[in-house]
Write a structure and sequence with these properties.
200 residues, alpha/beta, five-stranded parallel beta sheet, Rossmann fold, globular
């Protein structure tokens, strides 16, 4: 079989897997996530974002989009903080305490009642992400989770778990979907009247 045919077949298979994840999105949960974000931003609260590996990159991307891409349709700047970006602090916490504490220690003294925590984990079981959600819940925050596979602990712990099962155990499509969800959310806000009214 020629390489072009193999590439074509692989691409079609990958597209089918990604489309299957799209089809599994719970639209009620997605709407509730948007409502929670708009409410938090309107009240002056902060959304913190956490994740490991590729999900850490997604967390950073979310902060960039919510704080800067929004300039195309509003002067308002939501308070969004990716707890994945302070490398000196993360290495200090990991070295002196534990990598499991890398997000919770950053939240101490910063996370307040009414704040949001968006936790991104394909497995839903990353210990540092799970601990962050537990901490946010204990402080009266609102917790959102993007998770795949079987949903893991985040599916049960988060107030709003956006769970899209990918039974083939391939991280690629689920991480792609989480990045796309960032773009869906931030671009949706460009037409949300309540969000656009903030700061006017």
């Amino acid at each position: 079989m020629e390489r072009k045919q193999l590439v074509t077949e692989f691409l079609n298979s990958y597209k089918e897997r990604l489309n299957s994840l799209f089809d599994s999105i719970d639209l009620d949960i997605l709407e509730s996530i948007i409502a929670a974000m708009v409410k938090a931003f309107k009240n002056g609260n902060t959304m913190y974002v956490v994740g490991n590996g590729g999900s850490a990159a997604t967390a950073s991307h979310i902060q960039a989009d919510f704080q800067f891409f929004v300039r195309y349709f509003t002067d308002f700047r939501p308070k969004v903080v990716a707890l994945t970006d302070n490398i000196p602090l993360m290495t200090a916490i990991s070295n002196d305490n534990s990598y499991e504490d890398v997000f919770v220690e950053q939240m101490k003294g910063m996370f307040n009642k009414g704040d949001l925590l968006l936790a991104i984990s394909a497995s839903g079981n990353s210990p540092n992400v799970v601990k962050a959600v537990e901490y946010a819940n204990a402080l009266g925050g609102k917790t959102i989770a993007f998770c795949g596979f079987s949903g893991g602990k985040l599916k049960e712990l988060a107030d709003l778990p956006l769970y899209t099962p990918n039974e083939d155990k391939d991280y690629g499509p689920i991480e792609d979907l989480h990045m796309i969800l960032d773009h869906v959310l931030v671009n949706y806000l460009s037409q949300d009247e309540e969000f656009l009214s903030i700061g006017k």
